[in-house]
Design a protein that fits this description.
The structure is a homodimer.
Chain A: H1 2-20, E1 25-33, H2 42-64, H3 69-82, E2 102-108, E3 113-120, H4 126-136, E4 141-143, H5 144-153, H6 167-182, H7 193-197, E5 202-208, E6 214-220, E7 230-231, E8 241-243, E9 249-254, H8 256-261, H9 264-274, H10 279-293, E10 297-302, E11 308-309, E12 316-322, E13 328-333
Chain lengths: ~325, ~325
């Protein structure tokens, strides 16, 4: 009798463990902006879909193997940072001095631990630096040379700033600066060109692992022709990135200044938990505030139930997911 | 008849204007930490009270004269930055390389506009640089040399980093570094010394002007012995500073890493508007999360009705206010 009940108990625990496991989910974005089917060469469209699918598979594989959402987010973003198609890592847009200045952040929804770096140009994978700030320093946010020194001490691969610069980005900057000069526009003009050029934002990833833990990460080259020293929302915990198991994981992309002012990532989490909005409603409402303030962009959001929201108020947003039913989709336009 | 109704209308508008005016309110903090009456020399206690009172009067005068809450916040913080007693501007704590690295931010509750600088050591008044980033650049957040170049272009007074360093701060850093060496502590040890040394945090100000507009600002030298490049919550919109006329204005002080992770300033605003908590409840609840995560510090918060909250979970917090009834109080301990 004792044996029988023990066996029941064991079975119960095993079954419980098996069914209590969460189905992994991963969602990514690769920037929002003037992304229109009419302007998109078919081969580039194909390339974007393939890159997004590959990024998703990398992260999903980590989750399937029982890895943490934090590791999945990092691995996925490393791939996107290394891909010249996206405004993060290699292929980052350049500032007004034609330099790359990269920002990244990551957050663990299980512990509310977070790490971020800003204004770095010598760390090959800014997202990994952000993760190490979180895990190996007493700090959350490190900037500039101090962040680079820390990353180096931690054994991360260091590169020269030129490593990040692609011919395409030099051309885009030159074109933009020439146009601005021609138009004799004032300083405020540097606000809008991203949309015209269509490279607006960041890359980001949110993930749910089998243990039910959420994580979020964001990495970016920022805004083309930004002033030297400018930092957007990507490394700001609560603006570009937030994750809390009790609410959701969020990564934003867009005109960072507005996302900071509207505290977008945490606002979505707050609307969900404090006002009981659905994830979709919460994400949309935060984005509506950005729009009201004059900004544009998009977000990806994911909760523990596997709900996904990916609203944006631009023409398009590179995005994709593998949901709890293992369905993969990659999307570019409205 | 027409004249009569016009006169009625004029009177109505004038009366309405007079009575619709808000009573100015100003609240400040000068850092939280191990501030105990038992350890406080009477002459220092007097000096702190006097400095807080003077800071309050400066800001209140601006408000009384019909100035904006934004200007009141800036003027008050300039005084605190220039006072060596506080960890902001002159008298800032030093990083692990014995350098000052200053951070500041400001936010306009009427428009949700915001400005911030981090990692600067050549701008005499970091709070003014934050305000100029908000008003004169298309950006919200600028760091390091880029922020300094911008401030210089805007005509702000520039200084050498030595300007901010006081003998007291050199002594405190040396004492701390010697103790850490003696104790052969690991890197994580640099987390706790602020509290022991009692110089923990920032200066901050929230204000309500006659037009009913809220503003918030925060300025700091950061955390003593912080790693070169570390940035805390003070320049992070949503963490150390937030202002929204529809909710409240908040400035935080304390162990910045926890305030970033808990998104304290915006969390208070969110709890107030989304969960209809009182200002006091909202501020306390956000601070409780900081404590739950392992952090300590305090906040000041103010809403349009003139309600004031000043909770902290340390031994003391330098703080004070002039309320809507023109009552002034300055406080140091629990």
């Amino acid at each position: 009798m004792k044996c029988l009940s023990l066996s029941f108990l064991t079975n119960f625990l095993i079954m419980n463990y098996l069914f209590a496991q969460y189905q992994p989910v991963i969602v990514i974005h690769g920037g929002a902006g003037t992304i229109r089917k009419a302007d998109m060469p078919p081969e580039k469209e194909k390339e974007v879909h393939e890159a997004l699918a590959k990024a998703l598979r990398i992260g999903y594989q980590t989750l399937e193997n029982g890895g943490t959402s934090l590791d999945a987010v990092e691995q996925t973003i490393i791939f996107l940072e290394n891909h010249p198609l996206f405004n993060a890592g290699v292929g980052s847009v350049l500032n007004n001095k034609a330099q790359p200045e990269l920002d990244a952040s990551i957050m663990n929804g299980a512990t509310l631990e977070a790490g971020a770096v800003a204004g770095v140009s010598r760390i090959k994978q800014p997202i990994s630096a952000a993760k190490l700030v979180m895990q190996k320093s007493p700090h959350v946010f490190m900037i500039g040379k101090g962040a680079e020194q820390f990353a180096k001490e931690q054994g991360l691969e260091m590169v020269k700033p030129n490593y990040f610069i692609t011919p395409e980005q030099i051309n885009q900057l030159k074109k933009l600066q020439k146009r601005l000069k021609d138009q004799k526009k004032n300083q405020k003009a540097s606000l809008s060109p991203n949309q015209e050029i269509g490279k607006f934002g960041t890359v980001g990833c949110v993930a749910l692992d089998k243990a039910g833990n959420l994580a979020a990460g964001t990495s970016t080259g920022g805004m083309i022709n930004k002033r030297y020293g400018r930092v957007g929302d990507a490394p700001i915990i609560g603006a570009g990135t937030y994750a809390d198991n009790n609410s959701c994981a969020v990564s934003a992309t867009g005109h960072g200044e507005y996302f900071i002012r509207a505290n977008v990532a945490f606002r979505i989490a707050a609307l969900k938990t404090m006002q009981n909005l659905s994830l979709q409603q919460a994400a949309q409402q935060a984005l509506d505030l950005v729009q009201k303030l004059g900004g544009s962009g998009g977000v990806i959001a994911l909760d523990r139930e596997g709900n996904i929201a990916m609203p944006f108020n631009t023409d398009g947003m590179y995005r994709g997911y593998i949901d709890k039913n293992k369905r993969m989709e990659t999307l570019l336009y409205k």
